[in-house]
């Protein structure tokens, strides 16, 4: 091979994220955007661990979980065993930083695809950069419904979105009344004021009348706040039986501490995932975290119905000494779906990867999620995802809804602060 031809070939392979040379390891570079410092650092660390486990399974194998796609451990077989290389970027939960980091990953790191970014507001800006550049962007966790309402060609989301999740919450309340005669007389909400919390508030406002519920008070706050005293005092004055809450980790923890300090506790807190499912929530609050009900997409007690859940969680726990959460399990799944698409594409060309994502049809028995599978509609939304509700009891998350999947009965109302052992 002439030197000029070698140079051209090396340039092509490098642009595709694949190294050349007998000693060089073939690589497929995937950019991953998450909050690794700042207020979301704790959850970001767990998401990073989930990504690293997924990449390790793809690159080096996991013979104990043969049902998991690409677990044979030979890299990506349709790319001659090329290994996944994760290129991490820290968006610090800042939408502008997320956009600039997405651009850096695409233009400087030459990644073939992007996965991220947990915070809906960051996913919105980062995916705009990917859309303009014509680079596939897969979002495993952000739930703002509007993200798949932008007519984007390059954006795909595996998680269900808030329209479904808020419906789930109200369906649960409807069935709770029908089956157990429990109906909250006064409902209030406490939501962060970013894209996710704002859209959730709008959905709650829209759906409450349809379910014959009145939200007497809606309180919003800045997600990076360091105090919630006035907001909790406003809630306490409304005297609700039920608080619907959407908070990230730091503010979820802060809210519970403030509730206790001010002697406020409704009959129930029905949370919208995020901070309430982060490992740090239970670790920091201990018994004070108990009895909260949160919407979820994953629960370890569902392993009795899907052995893959326990098999992969055991790998995660043995390495990091923690269990998956609804956040980290979705991130793991997102990277597995992206890697599967790149492998099926047999190419690192953006359009080939995009077409493979469009054609994705992964059955539920190949996932660690309690979903029917992964299949994207024309908007890039997975149509086969579904939500569950879990309740924290003795520091563990127990599935309580849908009732036919429940591992234990709902405890309602929550015991008051001075009644807890």
Automatic annotation (TrEMBL):
Name recorded for this polypeptide: Branched-chain amino acid transport system substrate-binding protein
One matching Pfam family: Peripla_BP_6
Signal peptide boundaries: 1-24
Transmembrane annotation, as ranges: none
Keywords recorded for this protein, A-Z: Signal
InterPro entries: BCAA_transport, Leu-bd, Peripla_BP_I
Residues annotated as domain Leucine-binding protein: 27-383
Similarity section: Belongs to the leucine-binding protein family.
Native source species: Rhodoferax saidenbachensis
PANTHER family membership: ABC TRANSPORTER SUBSTRATE-BINDING PROTEIN, LEUCINE-SPECIFIC-BINDING PROTEIN
């Amino acid at each position: 091979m002439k030197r000029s031809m070698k140079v051209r070939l090396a340039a092509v392979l490098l642009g595709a994220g694949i190294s050349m040379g007998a000693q060089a390891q073939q690589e497929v570079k995937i950019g991953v955007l998450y909050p690794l410092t700042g207020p979301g650092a704790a959850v970001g660390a767990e998401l990073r661990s989930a990504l690293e486990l997924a990449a390790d399974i793809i690159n080096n194998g996991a013979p104990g979980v043969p049902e998991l796609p690409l677990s044979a451990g030979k890299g990506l077989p349709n790319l001659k065993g090329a290994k996944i290389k994760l290129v991490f970027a820290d968006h610090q939960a800042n939408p502008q930083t997320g956009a600039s980091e997405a651009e850096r990953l695409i233009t400087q790191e030459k990644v073939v695809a992007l996965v991220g970014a947990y915070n809906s507001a960051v996913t919105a800006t980062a995916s705009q950069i990917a859309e303009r550049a014509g680079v596939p962007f897969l979002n495993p966790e952000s739930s703002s419904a509007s993200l798949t309402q932008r007519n984007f060609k390059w954006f795909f989301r595996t998680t269900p979105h808030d329209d479904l999740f808020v419906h789930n919450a109200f369906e649960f309340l409807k069935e709770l009344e029908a089956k157990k005669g429990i109906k909250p007389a006064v409902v209030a909400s406490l939501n962060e004021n970013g894209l996710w919390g704002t859209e959730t508030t709008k959905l709650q406002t829209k759906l409450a009348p349809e379910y014959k519920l009145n939200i007497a008070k809606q309180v919003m706050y800045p997600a990076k706040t360091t105090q919630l005293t006035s907001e909790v005092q406003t809630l306490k004055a409304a005297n609700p039986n039920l608080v619907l809450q959407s908070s990230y980790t730091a503010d979820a923890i802060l809210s519970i501490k403030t509730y206790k300090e001010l002697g406020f506790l409704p009959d129930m807190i029905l949370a919208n995932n995020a901070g309430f499912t982060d490992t740090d929530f239970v670790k920091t609050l201990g018994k004070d975290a108990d009895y909260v009900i949160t919407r979820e997409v994953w629960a370890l007690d569902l392993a009795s119905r899907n052995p893959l859940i326990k098999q992969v969680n055991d790998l995660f726990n043995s390495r990091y000494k923690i269990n998956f959460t609804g956040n980290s399990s979705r991130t793991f799944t997102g990277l597995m779906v992206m890697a599967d698409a790149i492998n099926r594409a047999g190419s690192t060309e953006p359009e080939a990867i995009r077409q493979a994502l469009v054609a994705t049809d992964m059955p539920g028995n190949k996932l660690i999620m309690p979903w029917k599978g992964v299949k994207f509609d024309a908007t890039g939304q997975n149509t086969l995802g579904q939500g569950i509700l879990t309740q924290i009891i003795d520091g563990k998350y127990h599935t309580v809804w849908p009732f036919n999947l429940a591992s234990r009965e709902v405890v309602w109302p929550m015991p008051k602060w001075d009644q807890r052992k």
